[in-house]
Amino acid sequence: MEQSRDIIDVLKQQGYRLTPQRLMVVSAIENSEDHISAEEIYSQVVTRYPSVNISTVYRTLELLKRLGLVTETDLGGGRVRYHPASKGHHHHLVCQECGAMIDLDESILKPLQEALLLEHDFIADLRHLAIHGRCFRCQR
Predict the structure, then answer these.
(1) 90-139 fold
(2) What percent of the chain has pLDDT over 90?
(3) What is the Rg, in whole angstroms, of the alpha carbon atoms belonging to the chain?
(4) Which CATH fold topology does 2-86 show?
């Protein structure tokens, strides 16, 4: 729960109220084994706080994203998913056919980041990225 403490500490330092709903959203993100959607967070929070509205979850996620405390990634399936920024950068190859996810080492993206800077004077934010395509099994 150390990472959750970090998020809570940042929110406090920035002067944000630590409402029960906000704390439950943070807890759901931190305790998730994998990336989690706003809808999955909402289903966890509403069981403990029935009067919460999904808009509260979305507003909290936007705040956490703006503060750099969570990353937002489109892993397919029509939903973006969230992950604590403190758990590190990682990237995925996502098969659009079977849904398989393959972790991608960050070092592979370094040449792309450097090329974008040199050729386009553009600093790419590649902290958390999903690249969609077809896996080897689905190409056959």
Answers:
(1) Dna Ligase; domain 1 (3.30.1490)
(2) 44
(3) 17
(4) Arc Repressor Mutant, subunit A (1.10.10)
